[in-house]
Design brief:
The complex is a heterodimer of chains A (351) and B (261). By secondary structure, chain A is an alpha+beta fold. Chain A folds into 2 domains: 222 residues, Rossmann fold; 114 residues, Beta Barrel (OB fold (Dihydrolipoamide Acetyltransferase, E2P)), CATH 2.40.50. Chain A has a 6-stranded mixed sheet, sandwiched between helices. In chain A, strands 13-12-11-14-20 form a 5-stranded antiparallel sheet. In chain A, strand 17 and strand 18 form a beta hairpin. The relative contact order of chain A is 0.12. Chain B is mostly helical. Chain B has a domain of 171 residues: MetI-like (MetI-like fold, Orthogonal Bundle), CATH 1.10.3720. In chain B, 78% of the residues lie in helices and 0% in strands. Chain B is built from 12 helices and no strands. Chain B is globular. The chains are: A alpha+beta (351), B mainly alpha (261). The interface between A and B is medium-sized, with 26 and 18 residues. Bound molecules: adenosine-5'-diphosphate and magnesium ion (MG). The site of adenosine-5'-diphosphate (ADP) has 11 residues of chain A, from strand 2 and helix 1.
Chain lengths: 351, 261
């Protein structure tokens, strides 16, 4: 096992800057997600760490050792591919044994370790099957067993679950987490699915246009997004744009909103508020000093069983509020309501 | 369950087609075992024609030539064809599309015309005629087949397999040996068998390019028939057919494997 350090890595394809001065640290034994929309450079970053491709500049350390010039086969990393990439003409056993075989491991040891790995992914007894005789989830687990059986220093996964249907995906998430914890291997996991990133990882790095926008534990990222992009990409967010007046955010109609901390500087500013942090005030509810308040017109109520979404409008601002289905007051579309939320949930973000 | 009339018709039709295809061959095979030179019935079973064949040096020599030409053609055409297929798959280069399209017309052009063209060209360029000229001609004929067959196999290759093998610690040579070659093998073998069959069965071009005393089996059979038919020809033909069918069965097996995933 080992830590991974990426520092000031740049990678261009012709004129196109796929990675722009990316620095990120993955501590030993952690489970990390690289999250970003399609084309943001996630795969490119993972390929630099794996050694399939080499950065134009910058450093990559695995376990403290500089590896930028080592080819992939010398880096001792385990990698899982999006389409599993199992060797179609080999049995499950031979697939899993591959990494040991090319390292000239003695036969009896190969047997024992492949057995352990298959047990770990709960596929004991499938040794002789061919990949085409397995379900998607089983192939996935063979690919995982194959990637960890030779005890690599790091496990890299490129959107490993995106090919599975939703139910299977949730099951595999739990399984992946269990196996990662059992083996204790440093794991870097690429995904464009924010929910997956938030549930699985100890730390998330958000990529956009080849830049690392923000990194941190899921909770921190969710509660304190640094940019409007991070706020909307990781979950839902209502964005308020205005300008700074006496440390508060003044909307175009003059309404003042207070943020977590007094806004610094002058000029334009943006704040984000998570829809579930907002509530529709009950009639006669007193105005609370530590809350922001905003009148808006209720436009639509979307019923989703245990929860409700309210769509509202104030001028040209469209807002969204999530609530538990505990319908206390009878609300009707077209009604004017007062929204209320804590000042502490009003997060200043970069536009 | 009673067969519907359309079903019945279809079956009769199929039976007729099969009979039309195989009856002449069966008759010929049977006659190669008939002692009567004039095909008198009932068949009087004998191996005489095969024994005679064993002493017919012209037929045997031409068979040896056929096999020699086919084997050399196979080696050259499969290596060149496989290399070309890999290049088409892996690299982008100018005129790639044009080159790929240029593979098909030779298959469609009548052999008589290709043969005439080759004869003219070989004469004009000083290559001349003989086994070496035949090999050149056969390689040219077989190449498109090899490229098409091998390319069909390569097309299904997932480059991530090589990437996966490398990530598992395989050296470039180990990747080729354990991943790339085993995957390509069925396509390569099918392509080689195609090349062999194209060369071994070739008549027109071999006829044009043969010189007196040095010819291939199909050419020799044709020459012999012109002089007067003997059941020895039935015998050698039967052997060749048995050989060709075996070859084709093997090809079709590999070709099917080539198609599965
Ligand atoms: N080998 C390459 N040649 C040219 N452009 C590439 C190459 N690999 C990736 N790119 C470009 O780099 C950008 C980032 O790609 P990628 O890392 O695959 O994104 P992601 O995995 O986040 O979807 C994309 O715009 C892609 O087109
Ligand atoms: Mg990707």
């Amino acid at each position: 096992m080992a830590s991974v350090t990426v520092s000031h890595v740049n990678k261009s394809f012709g004129e196109f800057r796929a990675l722009d001065d990316v620095s990120i640290e993955f501590a030993d034994g952690g489970f990390y997600a690289l999250l970003g929309p399609s084309g943001s450079g996630k795969t490119t970053l993972l390929r630099q760490i794996a050694g399939f491709s080499f950065p134009d500049s910058g450093e990559i350390l695995i376990g403290g050792e500089a590896v930028e010039s080592l080819p992939v086969e010398k880096r001792n990393i385990g990698m899982m591919f999006q389409n599993y990439a199992l060797f179609p003409n080999m049995s499950v056993f031979d697939n899993v044994a591959f990494g040991l075989m090319v390292r000239s491991t003695p036969r009896h040891e190969i047997k024992a370790r492949v057995g352990e790995a298959l047990e770990l992914v709960r596929l004991s007894g499938y040794d002789e099957r061919k990949p085409h005789q397995l379900s998607g989830g089983q192939r996935q687990r063979v690919a995982l067993a194959r990637a960890i059986v030779f005890r690599p220093r790091v496990l890299l996964l490129d959107e490993p679950l995106s090919a599975l249907d939703k139910a299977l995906r949730l099951g595999m998430q739990v399984e992946l987490k269990r196996i990662q914890r059992e083996v204790g291997i440093t794991t870097i996991f690429v995904t464009h699915d924010q929910e997956e990133a938030l549930t699985l990882s100890d730390k998330v790095g958000v990529l956009k246009d080849g830049k690392l926008l923000q990194e941190g534990p899921p909770r921190e990222l969710y509660e304190r997004p640094a940019t409007a992009f991070a706020a909307t990409f990781l979950g839902d967010a209502n964005l308020f744009e205005g300008h700074v007046e006496e440390g508060e955010l003044a909307l175009s109609d003059g309404t003042r909103l207070r943020a977590t901390a007094p806004l610094a500087g002058v000029g334009k500013a943006t704040c984000a508020v998570r829809p579930e942090k907002m509530a529709i005030a009950e009639k006669g509810e007193p105005l609370r000093a530590d809350h922001n308040h905003l009148e808006a017109e209720l436009q639509e109520i979307i019923f989703a069983g245990n929860s409700l979404s309210y769509l509202l409008r104030r001028g040209d601002i469209h807002l969204r509020v999530f609530a538990q289905n505990r319908a206390t007051a009878e609300l009707q579309p077209g009604q004017r309501v007062r929204l209320t939320w804590r000042v502490a949930d009003t997060i200043p973000v970069e536009a | 369950m009673k067969a519907r009339p359309t079903n019945m018709l279809a079956r009769i039709y199929l039976g007729l087609v099969l009979a039309f295809l195989y009856l002449p061959i069966l008759v010929m095979a049977a006659m190669s075992f008939n002692s009567s030179q004039f095909y008198m019935l009932p068949i009087d079973w004998t191996f005489d024609w095969y024994v005679k064949l064993a002493h017919n040096t012209r037929l045997l020599e031409s068979t040896r030539n056929s096999i020699l030409v086919a084997m050399v053609t196979t080696v050259i055409a499969s290596v060149l064809g496989t290399a070309a297929s890999i290049a088409f798959f892996r690299y982008e280069f100018r005129f790639k599309k044009v080159l790929q399209a240029a593979l098909f017309p030779p298959i469609a052009i009548p052999w008589l015309i290709t043969g005439t063209a080759m004869l003219l060209f070989f004469f004009w360029s000083g290559i001349g005629r003989g086994l070496h000229a035949m090999i050149l001609g056969h390689v040219a004929l077989a190449l498109p087949y090899v490229i098409i067959v091998v390319s069909a196999r390569i097309k299904g290759f997932d480059p991530d397999l090589e990437a996966a093998a490398r990530s598992l610690g395989a050296s470039p040579w180990q990747v080729i040996r354990h991943v790339t070659l085993p995957y390509l093998a069925p396509g390569f073998i099918a392509g080689a068998l195609f090349a062999f069959a194209v060369s071994f069965d070739q008549f027109v071009i071999s006829y044009f390019l043969s010189v007196p005393g040095v010819s291939t089996l199909p050419v020799e059979i044709y020459t012999a028939i012109k002089k007067g038919f003997t059941p020895e020809i039935n015998a050698i033909s039967t052997l060749v057919i048995a050989f060709s069918i075996t070859l084709l069965v093997i090809v079709s097996r590999f070709y099917r494997f080539g198609g599965d995933r």
